[in-house]
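CHAIN AND CONFORMATION:
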Amino acid sequence: MLKKFLPNDYVKNIFEITPEFLKERDIKGIITDLDNTLVEWDRPLATPELVEWFSILKKHGIKVVIVSNNNETRVNKFSQPLNIPYIFNARKPRIKAYKQALQMLGLPKDETIVVGDQLLTDVLGGNRAGFHTVLVVPVTHTDSTITKFNRMIERRILKWFNKKGLLEWEGQRSGK
């Protein structure tokens, strides 16, 4: 049962997901979470480094859709200046938003990855929807009140994965 929470890949940060990383996996599209995946949950806009990352992806023909459980105001304020399509109130780990994002990308599922910082929403939802999933270390150690509860459960699952040799986490090693 816990295998539903196991990502296909894991990285220390979003910037390890390079065009080369994607080409090795024949990936042309990214469905990504927003809060604590791309930027801190309380940072309203993209950092210059993140703007550059999006630019590099675009230059290599990689499409991106942001899928967030957050509200429209938050997701629009972040995504609109970057001209990146988005889905808000996604209700992850339900799979409906992932299907919708795939249609927005116009790509087949096997050419698309799901990226996020949470096992209980991003990875579980992406796995349930049949995508290649990539877990990133959260960009900050603070969370919104709702996410704090998920993190307690997540830590137990990550410990179990570590114990079984399925995933080494948080600064020990990235990649799989």
Q: What stands out?
A: The longest strand covers residues 63-67.
